[in-house]
Design brief:
Blueprint lengths: L2 E2 L9 E6 L2 E5 L17 E7 L4 E6 L9 E5 H7 L2 H19 L11 E2 L6 E2 L6 E2 L4 E10 L2 E7 L10 E4 L6 H13 L2 E13 L4 E12 L9 E8 L12 H7 L5
Parallel strand pairs: 2-5, 10-14
Antiparallel strand pairs: 1-4, 2-3, 3-6, 4-5, 7-8, 8-9, 10-11, 10-12, 11-15, 13-14
The structure holds zinc ion (ZN).
Amino acid sequence: MALLDHITSWEGKRTYIFRGREILTDKGGDAADAGAVASLDNCILQCCEDTAWQSVGILLQADTAAPAGYEFTPVPAYFFAHDDAENARAARMKSLAQWLADNRYCPFCGQPLQLHATEAALACPSCGRLHFPRVEPCIITLISRGDEILLLRNIKDRAGIYACLAGFVEVGETLEQALRREVREETALEVENIRYAGSQGWPFPDQLMVGFYADYKSGELCIQESEIADARWFRRDSLPPLPKPGSIAWRLINGRFAQ
Ligand SMILES: [Zn+2]
């Protein structure tokens, strides 16, 4: 597959236009089509086309106003309202456009990078190295103890939402090791019977959320106060406010993964 920095034709292509963490949508809540681009000409930071995905990604300057008939919607809210295939396309185009905007020069020799002819990659014409988009894996897990599940409220949360435990995978770790370490760090608990559930791209900026179920094994709940405001065992018939549909946490809690 190839990336292009110029658009040869808009026909049959889906367009995704971003301003920071927001996506430009029409009044129906769908991604703005190519018709919105004409009036944004002077506000475009980055534009790329992904030939394999038949999609165009555009990054706008931070102060860009929405054209008449369109509005900016937070990307997570967009995810909540659309299906997996659509969300994967939107996430890919956001990450690719941001990656291109952030990687203009070769980190080895400092020369300007060029789009590779056939790969979704940047090539250095001077030293020949190829640079691929970054993906940062994170684990997210729902822990069960009998008929209770463990949910946590992050210190950054202002809406009273309880979600699943999550954290970044460190270099050299397996996903299972990362999961056990994060659970231990944030709750002082030990888990067992780790089962893969599903995954989701989360383009803030380049995360791949890898979801698991796990069972409580041992330990007394003791939260890491630098990251967690509260953590409790909840029965399924008395759950607190939860993350919205479209998030992988909602799917873990509700058991909604396409196989
Ligand atoms: Zn180079």
